[in-house]
Amino acid sequence: MAALARELEAFGHRVRVMWDPHERAAALGDPRTLRGVRCVVAAGGDGTVGDVVNELSADVPLAVLPLGNQNLLAGAFGFEDDPMALARGITRGGRRPIDLGRVHTTAGPRLFVLMLSVGFDADVVHRIARWRTADGPARRAGPANYLRPVAAAFWSYPHAAVTLTAGGVVVDGAHCIVANLPDYALGLRLAPAAQADDGLLDWTMLSRSGRVALASYALAVARARHTLRAHVASGRTPRLTLRGTRPVPVQIDGEPWGFTPAEVEAVPTALSVVVI
User: Is the domain of 109 the same as that of 213?
Assistant: First the structure.
């Protein structure tokens, strides 16, 4: 971040760096503080980007300096850990409006940039979050830290039934993803046709439950062939509801966000992203 600050200052910009989350939330949440601000840079991973998006209270373009374990939004819009290139993009002033999603679960309302999911992978995200925050400050989670939560969820997740309602469409299944962008962890694309600027959200429902079906779905997703299966339903909608036969875990942009029921809607052109 210090290197980016130096590059921006060399272009004649005034830079304010905030690492304290409370200071950041207070600044981004006050439209008066943001008056005259050219750009806000989120330095971190997708979790940090999600926090910044939810704190931002004015139409100020967002840029990302990818420093996290998962940097899906940064990858989708060409942001790299290159302070010079980022400073040049900010100075040029180009921006692209994109949609956001908004979800309301048992944890309350929150905006998301990438996607939300309900079911097995959300359970894994909840498990990782509990491990990270146990016994003090949050731990940094690398790829190897996901092995135990994935294995535990694979053997113990109850596969509660989920019902999606979107307009006149009602679909039952076991696992569902709702995407604003196609990118998912590990280079996977569960909703490959999703677009960030169409005012709609793409949903994909995996209908079958159980460990055998889950393993089969994982293989199909890795081969990008899951959308060809008869028991995988998909659609596109501005709003939908997800309910479970019991509270089912929800994750948004790789962070836990309560349990079903989940009311989800697209928020068109709600964010401007710096063009690199």
Answer: yes
- What are the pLDDT digits (tens) for 237-272? 999 999 999 999 999 998 999 999 999 999 999 999
Integer Cα distance of 90 and 173 in angstroms: 44
Same domain, 34 and 59: yes
Strand extents, DSSP E, 133-194: 162-166, 169-173, 175-179
Residue 235 lies in a domain: yes
Tens of pLDDT along 6-24? 999 999 999 999 989 999 9
CA nearest neighbour of 118 among 174, 181, 169: 174
State the CB neighbour count (10 A cutoff) for residue 165.
Answer: 14
How deeply is 273 buried, as exposed, middle or buried, from its count of CB atoms within 10 A (0-12, 13-18, 19+)?
buried
Q: Is the pTM of this model over 0.85?
A: yes
Nearest-angstrom CA–CA distance, 105 and 60? 27
